[in-house]
UniProtKB/TrEMBL annotation:
SUPFAM superfamilies listed in its UniProt record: C2 domain (Calcium/lipid-binding domain, CaLB)
One Pfam assignment: C2
Record localization: Membrane
Source organism: Lanius ludovicianus (Loggerhead shrike)
Topology within the bilayer: Single-pass membrane protein
GO CC term, one of those recorded: presynaptic active zone membrane
Name of protein: OTOF protein
Keywords (A to Z) from UniProt: Membrane, Repeat, Transmembrane, Transmembrane helix
Xref: InterPro entries: C2_dom, C2_domain_sf, C2C_Ferlin, Ferlin
GO biological process assignments: plasma membrane organization; synaptic vesicle priming
């Protein structure tokens, strides 16, 4: 296969990648949109709590955890499983904590895990 980088064997096996999501701490207040401010002014609703979930992207695939309603310190204890050829051509995993919203989900924080830093040589 001409598209494979040097050093990657042409015959690769399928592998499962397990990403375990445990919890998050100290999430910021997120309800600062215009609609949230209008809602506060009209009906006095002053809930600044987040509805967080974690979205993981790896090798063109996406997975996400359940939504933890109104929590600054959510506890998931969930795992996301990806099936991909080994060794993967993708060199990093994108992990993003997002605030679930009826109109548009907002990213709270993003982190990339470099697979070369957490895996053995070869």
């Amino acid at each position: 296969n001409l598209l494979l980088p040097d050093g990657v064997p042409p015959e690769r096996q399928w592998a499962r990648f397990y990403i375990k999501i445990y919890r998050a701490e100290g999430l910021p207040r997120m309800n600062t949109s215009i609609m949230a401010n209008v809602k506060k002014a009209l009906i006095g609703d002053n809930k600044d709590l987040v509805d967080p979930y974690v979205q993981v992207a790896f090798a063109g695939q996406k997975g996400k955890t359940s939504i933890q309603k109104s929590s600054y310190e959510p506890l998931w204890n969930e795992q996301i499983i990806f099936t991909e050829m080994f060794p993967p051509l993708c060199k990093r995993i994108k992990i993003q904590i997002r605030d679930s919203d009826k109109v548009n989900d907002v990213a709270i924080g993003t982190h990339f895990i470099d697979l070369r830093k957490i895996s053995n040589e070869g």
